[in-house]
Amino acid sequence: MEIYPNGFSTYVHVEGLSERLEGRSRPGHFRGVTTVVMKLLQIVQPNFAYFGRKDAQQARIITQMARDLNLDSEIIVCPIVREPDGLALSSRNAYLGAEERKAATVLYRALDAARSELAAGVRDALQLQRVLHRTLSVESQARVDYAEIVDAESFEPVVRVSKHSLNIPLAVSSGKHAMIKNCTYESSWALNVT
Q: Which of 85, 107, 110, 82 shows the shortest CA–CA distance to 98?
């Protein structure tokens, strides 16, 4: 069975969520992701489909797609598994050279700095963003694509951290490789670096 036969012209697009953050950096990326995931779910028809929280925006978009299109497969978002240096396990890591891999750990350090600020009572999103950018800027090999404080459902930027679920998405490029990291902040005020 061919996934994209000759003459293929049908795509799945989740409006709004697909245009933010990673979608803004890589136009059309999520249209490709949702289309192939939809095709695979329709072909395999699993009861459950598992996606990693490391790519939180992608997981959110797929969850929205499954809900909107009444898919029978339940989307399960799984926690991140980390390597000893804090870098999240990812197929992308195989493409990193030794220096790029070392540079990638700045993502975890930036999220840890934000966690410390939140634990100290900082609730101003711009102040938290400055902490993220300051931490990321110490790594000369990392170019910041985005570092924001957003609502975990809409992925819209927030001004102030309040008692609802947030996400702190970060993306940096090192050489020709992009690295993405996320951290969730739940209403319990416990910060989970994922």
A: 85
Residue 68 has which token pair?
């909107």
Backbone angles phi, psi at 118, to 5 degrees: -65, -40
d(CA 87, CA 93): 9
Amino acid identity for residue 95 in this structure: Y
Residue 52 φ/ψ, nearest 5 degrees: -80, 145
CB of 114 closer than 8 Å to CB of 168: yes
Other CB atoms closer than 10 Å to residue 137's CB: what's the count?
Answer: 12
* Digit-coded pLDDT (tens) for 85-132: 878 888 888 888 888 888 888 998 999 999 899 989 999 999 999 999
Domains of the chain (ranges; CATH) run 17-78 (no CATH), 91-193 (3.30.1300.10)
